[in-house]
Give the backbone structure.
Amino acid sequence: MVYLKNEYATETDGKTTEMVLRDFLENILDIYVSNFQRVHRVGRNTANRDRPRPIIARFQKYPEVVEILKQRKNLDKNAGYGIGPDLPKKVIELRKHQIPRLLEARKDGRTAFFSRAEPWRLMIDGRVAS
């Protein structure tokens, strides 16, 4: 699943959520997606929301997810777009405690990232960080 939050996520002109997401992927990321398994918004639709509702999409083909997650580094940081995997709260909490080590390792010039297979596991220079 991919999580999208930005001004693109606002309800616009009677377009379906899938149409809004497809428009974003084609025009901003220049990626064509064949089919979605499911596309929906998160949160309640209220008139006085101070921020747009995020969109969550599940894709039929995993290589499309990988391509989209690779392309997120090309997004303009000031454009207000955000793309990321939809993770459970427990995984987010486990990651939160490891973020300082991740940033420190990257600052030192080492390769550091969270594993895709086990998203709570921090990898530094190809090894599990202890």
